[in-house]
Amino acid sequence: MFKLPLFFCLIVVVLGLSPHPGALIRLSTAAVDNAVKSIVDVLNEHIQEVQIPDQSEKKHHIHLEARDIKLERFNIDRNTVGVNTNTDNTVSFIAQHIEFKVSFHYQVKRKHLFSKSGHCSISVGDGHVASSLRLTADNGHPVISLLSKDAGMGDLHYKCHGDLIDHIINWLSGIIKPKIKKAIDDAIEKAIEQAFPKINEKLVQIPTDRPLSSSLAAFHVDYSIYDQPSTTPQMTRISVLSQFYLDGHKDDNPPSVFPSPGAFPDGPPERDICLNVDSNLVFKSAAYAFLTSDKSTFHLDKPVFGRLPENKRKFFDCDCAGELCLITLLPSLKSICKPGETVDIHGTVKLGVDIIADDRGLIISAQTDSIFQLGPVPGQGVTLLNLNAAVGVLLEKTVHIQDWSLFGHVSVFQTHLSATTPLGAIAPEIVQKIWEFALADLAELVINEALGGGIPLPPLKFITFDQVDIKFTGPLVQVCSNVNIDFSKLIHL
User: Fold this and answer.
1) Is residue 230 part of a domain?
2) Residue 12 · residue 244 · CB < 8 Å
3) Which residues belong to any copy of the Lipid-binding serum glycoprotein N-terminal domain (predicted)?
């Protein structure tokens, strides 16, 4: 388990799809450089052993064959790799310090005269490997496209064992060497070409659409990349849909959900990676999906009250005894609320239009209208109390991530309360006691239990973040961090 600030995970907190990205990821050139060098690590692993086709040559009645040619222990020194982010939306790299070994068996024969065999090894003195890449998106998943590749080996140094070694080396240098050199170049280029599908195969397996658990299973989180990423010499920008949606409402495009003007910064990130979230779009989308679902209405009864702290579980019972009981605070209810009965609460919730950020976290306003009645069916029981509450729902600033799900805590505070009974209005101090003793705990219990299964995150197990900083800028929440992208780790997941 590890802890992260809540806002680093706001990439997930958008409900109800709108055709606009809810978040922008900006990667610095240093982060891209590190990611490309991680790809070089993958190439080093992928080209550890490559079989090269047999080669042969005949000259002056002498037949020379090189068989079982193997390229082994290939290594590009990642610290000598040069990476360039280009104006044409590509990233290129070139490596000039390359090491590898090649071994093969040879046979030299002349018809009816002699046949000699042995084995040789080859080391390289210099050479280069270069590629051009582009980060794209396909069906919401990141894809690293290989645009070009080139491998060129320099001087090849031979060490042979067997008969006629001097003659063999001369033949290799003059006859077979160009063929073996080209075969090595071709084999490395082919291995580079084959490495990228392995990376992309793993990337596409990372789920971008994840359902929530338990009572929120009708909600999904869509982490799809929105539009195509862009790369410049200053940074790489990746727009992320970052929205939740309700089953059957993915394509709603509600007019109430729209982006903030100038939501995302144009300049490069201050750190390796910065995540900017349009919190207005986040909240408007959340409000739409919530009101579209059946979660905007609620029914609270004895089984729910039974999960309150023990001294509060009987607060709504008609035979509750003591100072802090509903029927004690409102004695007029005793003639209606008979021993053995329990008060049920039916209500609706409306979310406000704005979101507020302070040093505690994010605050969402809500309005609830509740009916306290005898009987489980709304409108068919005896009404005891009508309560209206304007509340603030605080998404606390720190959360924790476990098994790639986001867990946190919500607290609720009231900003205005009013209540009436069939006999008239209730004194504000009595309403305040009802709130403080039972309703605040009840609201927090219900919300936190609903979120108890956590919000599933994409399992980006090949990326680590360090030294996370948060700041608020207008409608944006910005989170910046150092980052390490390890594609070598990805392909082994």
Assistant:
1) yes
2) yes
3) 26-249
